[in-house]
Amino acid sequence: MNLYHQYSLPHLLLRRLATLVVGLVALPFMLFYRDRSRFYSYLHRCWCKTSTQPVWLAQAERAAADFY
């Protein structure tokens, strides 16, 4: 039984396109913002999200496979 819903390909493409557009539009403002790393970290999480599963949990599950 899968606890998390996988997003469809069109949903992923729209999410990544929106992330790219927001990142590019915000770039001129973020160059002078002190805490820009938090903003781009959030955009990276939006880019990596492929299901309703939290990104940190998906990455932790993938990293565990490297050790076992």
Task: Throw out a few tags for this protein.
68 residues; mainly alpha; flat
Structure report:
The chain has 68 residues and is mostly helical. 71% of the residues lie in helices and 0% in strands. The protein has helices at residues 9-30, 36-48, 55-67. The chain starts with 8 loop residues before the first helix and ends with a helix. 0% of the residues are buried.
What's this entry about, in short?
This protein has helices at about 10-30, 35-50, 55-65. With about 70 residues, it is mainly α. The radius of gyration is 15 Å and the shape is flat.
Largest sheet: none
Please give the share of residues in helix: over 70%
Total strand count, please? 0
- As residue ranges, the low-confidence spans are none
Shape: flat
Specify the number of helices. 3
Strand-and-helix sequence, N→C? HHH
Q: Tell me the radius of gyration.
A: 15 Å
Overall mean confidence score, pLDDT: 87
- Decide which structural class fits the backbone: mainly alpha
Distance between the termini: 23 Å
Strand content: under 5%
